[in-house]
Design a protein that fits this description.
- The complex is a heterotrimer of chains A (about 290), B (about 325) and C (about 270).
- Chain A has about 290 residues and is of the alpha/beta class.
- Chain A contains eleven helices and ten strands.
- In chain A, the strands form two sheets. In chain A, strands 5, 6, 7, 8, 9 and 10 form a six-stranded mixed β-sheet that branches. Chain A has a four-stranded parallel β-sheet with strand order 2-1-3-4, with helices on both faces.
- The longest helix of chain A has 24 residues.
- The radius of gyration of chain A is 23 Å and the shape is elongated.
- Chain B has one domain: ABC transporter involved in vitamin B12 uptake, BtuC.
- The radius of gyration of chain B is 20 Å and the shape is globular.
- In chain B, about 55% of the residues are buried.
- The chains are: A alpha/beta (about 290), B mainly alpha (about 325), C alpha/beta (about 270).
Chain lengths: ~290, ~325, ~270
């Protein structure tokens, strides 16, 4: 009888330890300060476990219902700690925040924007970290498959010289910022079958003056994330004054609206496809209309 | 040499220097272009990349630099005479802070002007500068019938601090990409890429320069003291008003066009005074031409030194102007 | 003719509602006169001088020049007749001595007119009259106090005025310079019939220079008349609250005033 009791107690203890260990390995109260990682968490089904988001996290709409804890430059440390998270996803450069969370012994997941493949590898890593390896794996696989599909479709086709603009003063040619040869935007363009006119600029972004735009003579201009109150048509007409640019002459200037375009998150495959559809419309016979 | 001849020589010499700089600048750039092709009228403009670079990218930029440089340098001279202080700058009295606040708001709220080819940013910026001028002027006039330069200075400095705080607040509230663009605006940018902004900035600047044309002699007398100027028949209050308003108008227009490009309003007049003396009939035109040449030269460096990357022109003027000014001060001791 | 000259007719002036400086002041400066406005600090001397020069507008009464209200005469015309020398001149910019003198020609020039050879000659002559012509190309700021003051007087002379107003011309000047200024002013008055008005608190300077004195006490005229009659112990006691001994100096014959003891004002004085 005593031996039975001992065994039961031993098993019970083991089970308890296992449960605790299991519980500890999968965080239940997650805070994410970056739009991309917030999207990732929701996309891999961990939405219910997200208890706090950054000020600029707008997707998915559910994220808006969570308490806001600050942004990249100004994380609200007090609020974060008050919410009693067991995992906080922070940006690599937020040194102050990291120091404070370390002091408070709150576990962290570090993230920084990088290239295209880093998006899916982050999804897998983050998924493993929060105990959703299966779901995150599936998500990452799907994204990679979609991107691979795009690559296949545009393979072998001539790659137009493209200027990928992500910032511009509305209705003028001032303050134009384009993607350089480094970063997920550059990778996105590459996957979509385009050649970056700024292939030689080993930076993430470069301010494009009008002289530079004419000198680089892009065949296609794609503007993303340039959301203004201005009507698209009027906004794009600003390029008309640089009529010697091939893209202007052949009217291959596209504005891809939607805030998902600038986020290196789960929707990246959609973004890649949108860019590819614009560069190689023939490769996408059935153009599904998406936002 | 009689003063009349000295004035003529100053105009001719400095005018030619500015002209030469402005004629050479469009020929220089990060892309090599062929001047023959630029002026080859047989090639339709839409196909002529060289002509587009010259006429759309570079020439408006050089003209913008000339407008901004001459306005800021001349305004600096006028304000230094008004405040009787060679360290005063066109930005001392809060005009550029008002312009900056207007620009920040337009950038952060992603405003559109509703007029094709016109960005909302310069419009908001100019409105901001006018607002600042109105506040400072109102404050300075409230106490006395005339324009107390002391109150003017205090009001301007206070407004500067207050608007700077507001600007920081706006930057704080905006998201990351907007913050970068607002910070970039503060560094100055002359790439107007069209003649429209120039034509918009020209009228207020021309108006100011018309006022500048009649001020120099009175500025000489006024810069000694109010009393001595009045006893020589100068209408002190009117001259102060005219000086303040015209200098502020020119500064507001210049900042709206190219952003708050610093050091011009203080380095150029100082350098000019070392060359021509203190008589404002020489200092004012020489500074206007000198300012134009200086900014155009700095902008040329800004777009060629690290091509294809651009160094913001305000950074170039600071890098050149700052140490140069220090050297001047040390040399004078 | 009694009309010629500068006169204050019952003028009052206040800088603000409770800052009354002058009250019911009448004074006459005859053509060719050498008048001193004498009084302790704060008695309103500088203000009276500025009012006489047309730089300030009286709140009551009027200032007349040759019988005409000063403020009815255009500013530029007044500048042709009256020139002012302030107490101190501090320059923010490096004008040369000649430029300082030439600035005095401003009232004589048209809108965009530039100084011609005659203007330059007059400026140089003004410098010569104050013994500063040799400093013409020096920057004003490098001069000594006395030299600066003489250059400023030259600048006022260059206006070719009939009347010269000087505010405390010898305050903060060495004894030698005081003597120099005095002799320059006497010479100008004698040789050019320049009407001269100085405001000063220095009794001995006034005694040595002025033929007539206006005693200003707390914004009111205590007395006015010939220097000899004004430099009288009873009046000085009322003006300065000091007991003085006034004697004619054996060497020069000039009246000298020696303070002896404090004599605080009797109530109701």
């Amino acid at each position: 009888m005593a031996t039975h009791k001992k065994s039961i107690i031993a098993v019970a203890l083991l089970l308890c330890v296992a449960c605790v260990a299991l519980a500890q390995s999968s965080p239940q109260r997650i805070i994410s300060l970056i739009p991309s990682t917030t999207e990732m968490l929701f996309a891999m089904g961990a939405g219910p476990r997200v208890i706090g988001v950054g000020n600029f996290d707008r997707y998915p709409p559910e994220a808006l219902t969570r308490p806001k804890v600050g942004g990249l430059i100004d994380p609200d440390v007090e609020r974060i700690i008050a919410l009693k998270p067991d995992l906080v996803v922070v940006y690599g450069t937020q040194d102050d925040l990291r120091a404070q969370l370390e002091r408070a012994k709150i576990p962290m997941f570090l993230y920084e924007h990088a290239g295209l493949q880093d998006i899916t590898s982050t999804i897998r890593e983050l998924g493993r970290r929060i105990g959703s390896a299966k779901e995150s794996g599936a998500l990452a696989d799907r994204i990679e498959a979609e991107i691979a599909d795009v690559r296949t479709r545009v393979a072998g086709r001539p790659r137009p010289r493209t200027l990928l603009v992500f910032g511009r003063d509305a209705e003028t040619l001032r303050g134009i910022y384009a993607s350089g040869a480094v970063g997920f935007l550059a990778d996105m363009l590459d996957a979509a079958g385009g050649t970056n006119v700024f292939d030689d600029v080993k930076r993430q972004s470069i301010q494009t003056t009008s002289e530079l735009a004419v000198a680089r003579a892009p065949e296609v201009i794609i503007e993303i994330g340039v959301d203004t109150a201005s009507a698209t048509g009027r906004n794009l007409r600003a390029w008309d004054s640089l009529a010697s640019i091939p893209a202007v002459r052949s009217k291959r200037i596209y504005q891809l609206r939607g805030d998902g375009m600038m986020n290196p998150g789960p929707r990246i495959s959609t973004s890649v496809r949108r860019v590819a559809e614009v560069l190689h419309p023939e490769a996408f016979q059935k153009i599904e209309s998406r936002k | 040499m009689s003063i009349g001849r000295r004035i003529l020589v100053t105009w001719v010499l400095f005018g030619m220097a500015a002209l030469i700089v402005c004629l050479l600048a469009p020929l220089v750039g990060s892309t090599s272009i062929s001047l023959r092709r630029v002026f080859d009228s047989s090639i339709p403009f839409e196909d002529n990349a060289d002509a587009q670079i010259f006429f759309v990218a570079r020439l408006p930029r050089v003209l913008a630099g000339a407008l901004v440089g001459s306005s800021l340098a001349a305004s600096g001279v006028v304000l230094q005479a008004l405040l009787r202080n060679p360290l005063a700058t066109p930005f001392t009295l809060g005009v550029s802070a008002g312009a900056a606040l207007g620009a920040m708001l337009a950038l952060t709220l992603n405003l559109s002007s509703g007029i094709a080819g016109f960005s909302a940013v310069p419009i908001a910026s100019f409105a901001g500068s006018l607002g600042a001028v109105a506040i400072v002027y109102g404050l300075a006039r409230a106490r006395h019938r005339g324009l107390s330069t002391n109150v003017l200075l205090l009001a301007g400095v206070t407004l500067n601090s207050f608007f700077s705080a507001l600007i920081l607040f706006v930057q704080f509230m905006s998201d990351f990409t907007q913050t970068f663009r607002t910070v970039r605006w503060l560094m100055g940018d002359l790439d107007v890429s069209s003649y429209a902004p120039l034509m918009a900035a020209a009228p207020p600047i021309a108006l100011s320069f018309a006022a500048f044309a009649v001020l120099p002699r009175r500025m000489n007398l006024l810069s000694v003291s109010d009393e001595s100027a009045a006893s020589r028949g100068v209408d002190v209050h009117r001259t102060q008003r005219l000086s303040f308003l015209s200098a502020s108008l020119a500064t507001g227009a210049a900042v709206s066009l190219g952003g708050p490009i610093g050091f011009i309003g203080i380095v150029v007049p100082h350098l000019i005074r070392l060359m021509v003396g203190a008589d404002h009939r020489l200092v004012l035109p020489a500074s206007a031409f000198g300012g134009a040449a200086f900014v155009v030269a700095c902008d040329t460096i800004s777009r060629t030194a690290l091509a294809p990357l651009e160094i913001p022109v305000g950074v170039v003027t600071a890098i050149i102007g700052g140490p140069f000014f220090l050297w001047l001060l040390i040399r004078n001791r | 003719m009694t009309d010629r000259g500068l006169a204050a007719e019952r003028i009052s002036f206040a800088y603000g509602p409770h800052e009354a400086v002058l009250d019911d002041v009448s004074a006459r400066v005859p053509h060719g006169g050498l008048v001193g406005i004498l009084g302790p600090n704060g008695s309103g001397k500088t203000t009276l001088l500025r009012l006489l020069g047309g730089l300030l507008r009286p709140s009551g009464g009027r200032v007349v020049l040759d019988g005409i209200d000063l403020h009815k005469i255009p500013r530029a015309t007044v500048a042709l007749r009256i020139a002012m020398v302030p107490q101190e001149t501090q320059l923010a910019f490096d004008y040369t001595v000649l430029e300082m003198a030439t600035m005095g020609r401003y009232p004589h020039l048209g809108a965009f007119e530039v100084e011609g050879p005659e203007d330059l000659a007059i400026a140089r002559a003004a410098l010569a009259a104050t013994g500063t012509e040799h400093l013409a190309s020096r920057p004003f700021n490098t001069l000594s106090g006395g030299e600066k003051q003489r250059v400023v007087i030259a600048g006022a002379l260059a206006q070719s005025p009939d009347i010269l107003l000087l505010d405390e011309p010898t305050a903060s000047l060495d004894l030698a310079y005081q003597l120099e200024i005095r002799s320059i002013l006497q010479k100008l008055n004698r040789e050019r019939s320049l009407t001269i008005v100085v405001s000063t608190h220095d009794l001995n300077f006034a005694a040595g220079l002025c033929r007539e004195l206006i005693l200003l006490h707390q914004g009111r005229v205590l007395a006015a008349g010939s220097a000899a009659s004004m430099l009288e112990p009873a009046l000085i006691r009322r003006l300065y609250g000091v007991e003085v001994d006034i004697t004619a100096n054996a060497k020069t014959g000039q009246l000298t005033v020696i303070p002896v003891a404090r004599a605080p004002e009797a109530p109701g004085a």
